[in-house]
Specification:
elongated; 4-stranded antiparallel beta sheet; mainly beta
C-alpha cells in the first residue's frame, strides 16, 4: 500500500513469526514512521484499497476451532485516514483474542 509521491503510506506484513501469522501495519508520513495499526499483531491482514488519504485493510477472522491455515470467520474491513497531522482509524478493529461471547478473532 505504498505509492511514491503520496504523503500517507503503509507497509504491512509479518513481524516475527516463522509461519507468517504475526502481522502488523506500519504507517508513514513522507517516509517517516508514525505508528502501527494495533498494540498486538494479527494473524492475517490483506491490503484492499487506497486513495491519497485513506487506506483500507481486511483483517481475516478466525473461529476458535479454525486451524491456522484455514480461517472460516470471514473478514472485517478497517479504514485508516490521514488527518493532516497523523492518522485515525475509521472502523473498529475486530477482537484480537477469543473471549466469552466473541465468536471470531483476528
Amino acid at each position: 500500500m505504498w505509492f511514491p509521491g503520496l504523503r500517507f503510506n503503509a507497509l504491512y506484513g509479518n513481524c516475527r513469526a516463522g509461519d507468517g501469522r504475526d502481522q502488523r501495519i506500519w504507517f508513514f508520513d513522507r517516509g517517516r514512521f508514525i505508528g502501527t495499526d494495533a498494540r498486538k499483531s494479527s494473524h492475517l491482514i490483506i491490503g484492499v484499497w487506497r486513495d491519497d488519504k485513506t487506506i483500507a485493510f481486511l483483517y481475516v477472522l478466525y473461529r476458535q476451532t479454525d486451524a491456522e491455515c484455514c480461517p472460516t470467520g470471514g473478514g472485517a474491513s478497517v479504514r485508516f485516514r490521514w488527518t493532516g497531522r497523523g492518522f485515525a482509524r475509521l472502523d473498529p478493529l475486530p477482537p484480537r483474542a477469543f473471549t466469552p461471547g466473541v465468536a471470531v478473532g483476528r
